[in-house]
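Entry 12.
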Amino acid sequence: MAALFHFVFELLKIALLSSLYGLGILILALLIEKITKADHINNLLKSKFKFWKTSFKIIYVSLFIFMFTYWGDHGLGDDSYLPIGHFQVVYQSDEYDYLEDKHGTQLNIRNFTYDASNLYAEANQDMFG
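Predicted 3D structure (tokens):
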């Protein structure tokens, strides 16, 4: 249920961002048209709502696709992911942070930080220690 709530929240967030970015693009296009007196931009902006709606759709689809990439996926619901580079992720589930190798083996960690090329963490040998 938490994952469904979070997914709906993400869809609403993407819609709001798309609306604002589309409005920004429309304002930018209107400023460029006003400054340059370009006829081809003027023809494009005859229907400002149609221009905004097209921008909204393109941005919405782009942000939706980005949501499922390595850089945009941060988990839904109770699970969360923190990309740390080189397609490695720190996972968190039920308040426990862990790393996972390609075989699915988990290494529980706590008190972690990272910089441009390294992850620094305290390893926890048992899950409840």
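Annotation: The longest strand covers residues 106-114. The chain has a mean pLDDT of 78.
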